[in-house]
Every structure is written in structure tokens, then in C-alpha cells.
Design goal:
Number of strands: 11
Oligomer: single chain
Structural class: mainly beta
Order of helices and strands: EEEEEEEEEEE
Shape: globular
Distance between the termini: 39 Å
Number of helices: 0
Strand content: over 45%
């Protein structure tokens, strides 16, 4: 059983960089042909796909967030990381990591609340 767990950055100040890590257990992030996504849900809004990293390390980003987003991975720790630069209060959301296989987002982390406030 694959399990994903997001880190908990809590409160982030405006203009700072948000860093989140998703640790995967029960499966390797290098296994063909899975992709590993970051998704967020602002309060009162729908889910927003932010980007993904593939089993081979290729990255893909939402066009609306591409200029502020980086996704990387550490295969030795079996985790992948989101960095979102220059955050504003509009980046306040619950952030999720998820696996994409034949079925998109077939496994999810429990989500972590990120609040951007001074």
C-alpha cells in the first residue's frame, strides 16, 4: 500500500519561499511510469494542480504557477519537494501530494494546511 505524507510548514510570511516535502512509503518514486503531483485547495475553492515530477525526474508545471514553482526529488530518501517562491496570502491553501498512475491521483497524502500571513 502506497502512502504519502506531506511535511508541515505551518505559517509562512509573505514574500518568503514555501517548501513542502512529500515522503513516499510502500513504493519507489522511480518506479516506471508513475508521476508525483502537488495539488492545492484554497479555502472555498476547488482543487488546483500545481505540477509534477516523473519517475525519471522530468518536471511539469501549471502555466499559472510555473514562474514561482520548482519541484525536485531525493531518490535516496524517496521523497519529492515543492518550492513556491514569493508567496502571498492568496497561496493560503491545503496542499496535497498525490501519485499519478493509470488513474490520475490514485493515492493522496492527508494534506497540510499552509497559511501565508504576516
Amino acid at each position: 500500500q502506497v502512502q504519502l505524507q506531506e511535511s508541515d510548514p505551518g505559517l509562512v510570511k509573505p514574500s518568503q519561499t514555501l517548501s513542502l516535502t512529500c515522503t513516499v512509503s510502500g513504493g519507489s518514486i522511480t518506479t516506471n511510469y508513475y508521476y508525483w503531483s502537488w495539488i492545492r485547495q484554497p479555502p472555498g475553492k476547488g482543487l488546483e494542480w500545481m505540477g509534477a515530477i516523473s519517475y525519471s525526474g522530468s518536471t511539469y508545471y501549471s502555466p499559472s504557477l510555473k514562474s514561482r514553482t520548482s519541484i525536485s526529488r531525493d531518490t535516496s530518501k524517496n521523497h519529492f519537494t515543492l518550492q513556491l517562491r514569493f508567496v502571498t496570502p492568496e497561496d493560503t491553501a491545503v496542499y496535497y501530494c498525490a501519485r499519478d498512475g493509470d488513474i490520475p491521483h490514485d493515492y493522496w497524502g492527508q494534506g497540510t494546511q499552509v497559511t501565508v500571513s504576516s
